[in-house]
Design goal:
It contains 12 helices and 21 strands. By secondary structure, the chain is an alpha+beta fold. The strands form 6 sheets. The protein has a 5-stranded mixed sheet, sandwiched between helices. Strands 7, 9, 10, 12 and 21 form a 5-stranded antiparallel sheet that branches. Strands 16-15-14-19-20 form a 5-stranded mixed sheet, sandwiched between helices. Strand 2 and strand 3 form a beta hairpin.
């Protein structure tokens, strides 16, 4: 049994990690316990509540959304016996832009070891070329690739020796108002937001195996209102996108064409397989009664309705986002998760129309998740925990903007806060010197050397 947190402020025990997944059809609160020795986290509970007040990943009714978050939070607290307050939130964010930029700095005329200050400088140099509209903000800054003296493919340059450091950087830009609505919603539910993660990234971390991420794969998470796309290569995300099309659109198509209510259309689309178009049984009819009225439709018509929307989503919209990643090959193919991935025959159908390997993925930690809550719909919730663990292990892997900047301030924003700040790594510098004084002196000496 787990005891209630004893601190007066009601915040989480430091060994407890909590993630909140804001979805169009459901709200999930995932709770994990950290292992002090391995630094890994074990999921111990998942709270759930139907999602109200959220449409296509965006909050459209704040009060309804707050009530849904409170219900999911209460469910999670009852399951684990803990009072939860600090959370990292995943959300779709509406229309997002994934912008790539490059930066370069000189380490001096003589080779020397790369320090944390150098990594911060090269990230700032790459961000100098990123144009951010006034109504948008950088949510994530993700180093895609480092290069030291022209040697590419470096995962972590800290402690390595060279004269020139280059970086290929990805900046995830989202509408500021959407982020502020998410923060307002979660805080009104009595929670303290300690971090934000865009949902396609969380879903990818929750469903892709390390081997698939290294080899190259596209993770596609199709929920009720949106589809999240994350293209990985060499273990790092190359492109992130949110498409405002999801399973609810298929339900609407079925309801409109067959002239049936939405709840019945949802039932019907689960009764057929997307590969049934080659089956003789497609000539069979589905007969049912609803509110005293009889309905008849053929399986073939139903399958064709679903196939049209799925083909549009993947052959056009998803493929366009994969092409934007500029990944030459994806040996691991497409990894599908989310509610739509539970559709019968969808992997075989997508393999046929896309010409690439397709795998339907449960959450990587599904065998350690509560019964009935380890299905594809919870991949993003599980991925939040992996995101938190990876970010603590390597603070340069996923850099978030300060929440004070995303919330908006009454006065002017300082130049040092306009771009994401790198948190302290906790790792000693190669020379094991105090970071402030020696870092400044070394920077000053290096500047004079480069000038003269």
């Amino acid at each position: 049994m787990f005891k209630k947190a004893s601190n007066s402020g009601g915040y989480n025990d430091p060994d407890i990690l909590v993630g909140l997944d804001l979805g169009t059809t459901k709200i999930a609160v995932v709770v994990a316990e950290r292992d002090a020795k391995s630094v890994e986290a074990q999921i111990i509970g998942i709270g759930y509540a139907p999602s109200n007040g959220i449409r296509k990943g965006l909050i459209v009714n704040l009060d309804q959304a707050v009530r849904s978050v409170k219900q999911a939070l209460q469910d999670a607290e009852n399951m684990v016996g803990l009072e939860l307050r600090d959370v990292t939130v995943s959300f779709s964010g509406g229309e997002i832009n994934s912008v790539r930029s490059k930066g370069m700095i000189s380490l001096g005329r003589a080779p020397r070891q790369v320090m944390q200050l150098d990594v911060e400088r090269v990230i700032e140099a790459a961000q100098a070329d990123v144009s951010i509209p006034a109504n948008q903000s950088i949510l994530h800054t993700i180093p895609v690739n480092y290069s030291l003296d022209g040697n590419q493919g470096i995962d972590d340059p800290l402690g390595m020796t060279g004269m020139r450091l280059d970086i290929d950087l990805q900046s995830v830009i989202v509408p500021t108002a959407n982020v502020q609505n998410v923060l307002n919603c979660v805080e009104k539910a009595g929670l303290n937001v300690t971090g934000l993660v865009i949902k396609p990234l969380a879903a990818a971390l929750g469903s892709l195996s390390p081997e698939e991420a290294m080899a190259g794969a596209a993770s596609v998470d199709v929920g009720g209102g949106t589809a999240g796309v994350a293209v990985f290569s060499d273990g790092r995300p190359r492109h992130l996108a949110v498409i405002p099309v999801g399973g609810d659109h298929i339900t609407n198509d079925v309801a409109c064409v067959l002239k049936v209510p939405l709840n019945k259309a949802e039932e019907l689309k689960k009764q057929v397989s997307l590969c049934d178009d080659d089956d003789e049984t497609t000539e069979d009819s589905l007969e049912f009664e609803y509110m005293g009225r009889g309905y008849v439709c053929s399986k073939r018509d139903l399958v064709e309705i679903i196939q049209c929307r799925v083909e549009e989503l993947f052959s056009s919209l998803v493929k366009t986002e994969i092409d934007h990643a500029q990944a030459s090959m994806l040996p691991a193919g497409l990894v599908l998760t989310g509610g739509l991935s539970r559709s019968a025959g969808i992997d075989a159908y997508l393999n046929r129309i896309l010409g690439m390997a397709v795998r339907v993925s449960l959450p990587i930690d599904s065998n350690r998740m509560p019964p009935q809550r380890g299905t594809q719909e919870y991949s993003a919730a599980s991925g939040i925990i992996r995101y938190m663990v990876e970010k603590e292990r390597d603070p340069f892997r996923y850099i978030e903007s300060p929440l004070s900047v995303l919330k908006g301030k009454s006065g002017p924003v300082a130049a040092s806060e306009r771009t994401p700040r790198v948190p302290p790594s906790g790792r000693p510098s190669p020379d094991d010197k105090p970071p402030n004084k020696e870092g400044f002196m070394e920077s000053l000496v290096r500047t004079f050397k480069e000038l003269f």
